[in-house]
């Protein structure tokens, strides 16, 4: 985790969409998890790779303690939330861990499932889709459960296993 001297600081926990949207903050610390960086690398459009790498360098990669990952999983099954990927679960766990250590975590995400879980855990959320967005994003659907990937996001269920589909950005263009 971070140096105790940073306690009380705002910690922005960035998901894949936050990094692809180019979220930056002038104050506080930006963190993410390894799975998000992998999604950015393999889901992002090649021409934007350099820019993404720059953002990536600004976010510290954190591995959450297993204890917090389990707290998130337990709560997910209690409330019946099935729309979270491994990356999302880790981001929530990271936010909870920072909260317990008296930092002020803010999850930055465009995803409704992660926003919903953050609300349940009383963690602040920055809903990036509603901020001043300077890029257009093309989305694809994928299944967090069986890894099915489809072309267009319809907000529906996975045709293979029935889990609720998620979406992730695949390419970007300037407005
Ligand atoms: Zn599926």
Report what the structure shows.
The chain has 175 residues and is an alpha/beta fold. The protein has one domain: 5'-nuclease (Rossmann fold, 3-Layer(aba) Sandwich). Helices cover 36% and strands 23% of the residues. The protein contains 6 helices and 8 strands; from the N terminus they run βαβααβααβαββββ. The termini are far apart. The mean pLDDT is 79. Zinc ion is lined by residues 143, 145-146, 148, 158, 160-161, 163.
Q: What's the CATH first level? A: Alpha Beta
Radius of gyration: 16 Å
What oligomeric state is this?
A: single chain
Percent range of helical residues: 25-40%
Helix/strand structural class = alpha/beta
The string of secondary-structure elements, in order, is: EHEHHEHHEHEEEE
Briefly note the CATH topology name: Rossmann fold
Q: How many domains make up the coordinates?
A: 1
Anisotropy-based shape: globular
**Tally of separate helices:** 6
The residue-averaged pLDDT reads: 79
Uncertain stretches: none
Strand content: 15-25%
CATH superfamily: 5'-nuclease
Strand segment count: 8
User: Main beta sheet, described?
Assistant: 5 strands, parallel
The CATH architecture would be 3-Layer(aba) Sandwich
Termini, distance in Å?
37 Å
Bound molecules: zinc ion
Largest sheet: spatial strand order: 3-2-1-4-5
Distinctive features:
Rossmann fold, binds zinc ion, 175 residues, three-stranded antiparallel beta sheet, globular
């Amino acid at each position: 985790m971070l140096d105790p001297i940073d306690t009380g600081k705002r910690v922005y926990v960035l998901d894949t969409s936050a990094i692809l949207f180019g979220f930056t903050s002038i104050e506080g610390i930006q963190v993410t998890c390894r799975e998000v960086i992998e999604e950015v690398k393999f889901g992002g459009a090649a021409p934007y790779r350099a820019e993404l790498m720059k953002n990536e360098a600004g976010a510290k990669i954190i591995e959450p303690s297993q204890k917090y990952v389990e707290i998130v999983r337990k709560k997910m099954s209690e409330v019946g939330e099935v729309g979270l990927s491994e990356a999302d679960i880790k981001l929530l766990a990271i936010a909870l861990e920072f909260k317990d250590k008296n930092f002020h975590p803010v999850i930055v995400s465009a995803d409704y499932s992660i926003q919903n879980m953050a609300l349940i855990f009383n963690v602040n959320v920055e809903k990036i889709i509603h901020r001043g967005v300077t890029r257009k994003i093309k989305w694809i659907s994928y299944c967090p459960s069986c890894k099915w990937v489809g072309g267009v996001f319809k907000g529906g269920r996975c045709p293979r296993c029935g889990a609720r589909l998620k979406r992730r950005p695949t390419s970007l263009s300037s407005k």
